[in-house]
């Protein structure tokens, strides 16, 4: 009888796998566990067993019943879900189905392509890749970066606010990852953090409400502006060729001191002056500077012992320059005719 019970269980487990219709599953269960079902038919023979043997067989029968019920429950859940999805017209994905040739395969967005290229370059220089939330706290986005609530620098980066959550903003830059990274990994630190940013501003060919930046930060003992220039030159030459020069001019950012505006020689006219660089011979591609002591303190780092630099590339701007895209708005448009070109 024990063998019969084991076989009964195996038989059910085998059959249940093949049934996908909820009603058919119910019928199968009744066939095995119903009043006139297979399990009861076996149990009827139990009366002829000795008391001890009957106890053992009874226990096994219960286990078999529980196993059958459990696998029935699981199969029924799956079947009902599939039926519901079918009713709602959800797409069934058959991963073995060959692609439709005329649609072709997709590819990475140009911003992602340039982002991955830069991630490779930075990891080869010993940088780690960090990440931070797009919905950021006002505190990390501004206050910890030396931009207190009443600071006029907040006007330059108006953003989107979330109704009912006054402490949260869509991050206006990737710089809050500086603080998050220092607090999480401590020093020495070498990281880059690419990501999406948001600003509430009128859009034009060079400005979008949604765009990408690539933040970078290096903190260690004895780090100077010369290290910063070396790293940024390496990036510029990687992007635009060996002859590219980097020019840094003072610019105010509350979270660095000194702060600079970084430009590279125009790759189109090689510094001669053209339409792309507005006849200046230079293209602006990043903001950077030596990390302000109070920002280091916010990150839990002692500014007497450590120094560092940080930079923020306009990643979307780099993509535009690399591919000669004349209007930033194409990049977030989702227009497949545009994206197919890259
Ligand atoms: C910043 O956002 C600073 N966080 C950069 C920084 C990091 C400075 C670390 C010092 C140290 P800024 O607002 O200048 O700086 O923006 C940096 C780059 O982001 C710009 O050069 C530009 O390429 C890009 N950018 C800014 N606003 C927009 C926008 N609305 N659309 C597209 N790109 C933008």
When the domains are counted, the total is 2
Q: Strand fraction band?
A: 15-25%
* Main structural class: alpha+beta
Bound ligands: adenosine-5'-[phenylalaninyl-phosphate]
Helical content class: 25-40%
Instruction: Going across the biggest sheet, name each strand in turn.
Output: 1-5-6-10-9-8-7
Kindly report the average pLDDT value: 91
With helices defined by DSSP (H or I, 4 residues minimum), what is the helix count?
11
- Unreliable stretches covering 5 or more consecutive residues: none
What CATH architecture of the largest domain would you give? 2-Layer Sandwich
Task: Report the C-alpha radius of gyration, rounded.
Answer: 32 Å
Question: In a few lines, what is going on in this structure?
Answer:
About 40% of the residues lie in helices and about 20% in strands.
């Amino acid at each position: 009888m024990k063998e019969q019970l084991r076989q009964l269980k195996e038989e059910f487990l085998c059959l249940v796998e093949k049934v996908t219709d909820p009603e058919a599953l119910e019928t199968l269960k009744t066939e095995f566990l119903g009043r006139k079902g297979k399990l009861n038919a076996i149990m009827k023979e139990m009366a002829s067993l000795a008391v001890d043997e009957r106890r053992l067989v009874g226990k096994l029968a219960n286990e078999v019943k529980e196993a059958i019920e459990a696998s029935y429950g699981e199969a029924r859940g799956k079947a009902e879900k599939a039926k519901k999805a079918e009713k709602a017209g959800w797409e069934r994905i058959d991963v073995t189905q060959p692609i439709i040739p005329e649609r072709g395969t997709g590819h990475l967005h140009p911003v992602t392509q340039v982002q991955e290229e830069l991630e490779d370059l930075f990891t080869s220089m010993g940088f780690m890749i960090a990440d931070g939330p797009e919905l950021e706290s006002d505190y990390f986005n501004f206050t910890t970066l030396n931009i207190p609530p009443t600071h006029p620098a907040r006007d330059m980066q108006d953003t989107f606010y979330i109704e009912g959550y006054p402490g949260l903003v869509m991050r206006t830059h990737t710089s809050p990852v500086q603080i998050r990274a220092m607090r999480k990994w401590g020093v020495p630190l070498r990281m880059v953090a690419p990501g999406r940013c948001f600003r509430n501003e009128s859009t034009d060919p060079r400005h979008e409400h949604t765009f990408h930046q690539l933040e970078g930060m290096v903190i260690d003992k004895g780090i100077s502006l010369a290290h910063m220039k070396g790293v940024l030159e390496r990036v510029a030459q990687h992007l635009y060729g060996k002859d590219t020069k980097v020019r840094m001019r003072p610019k105010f950012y509350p979270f660095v001191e000194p702060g600079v505006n970084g430009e590279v020689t125009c790759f189109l006219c090689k510094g001669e002056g053209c339409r792309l660089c507005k006849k200046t011979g230079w293209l602006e591609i990043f903001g950077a500077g030596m990390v302000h002591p109070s920002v280091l303190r916010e990150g839990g780092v002692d500014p007497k012992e450590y120094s560092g630099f940080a930079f923020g590339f306009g990643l979307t701007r780099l993509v535009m320059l690399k591919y000669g895209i004349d209007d930033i708005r194409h990049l977030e448009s989702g227009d497949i005719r545009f994206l197919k070109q890259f």
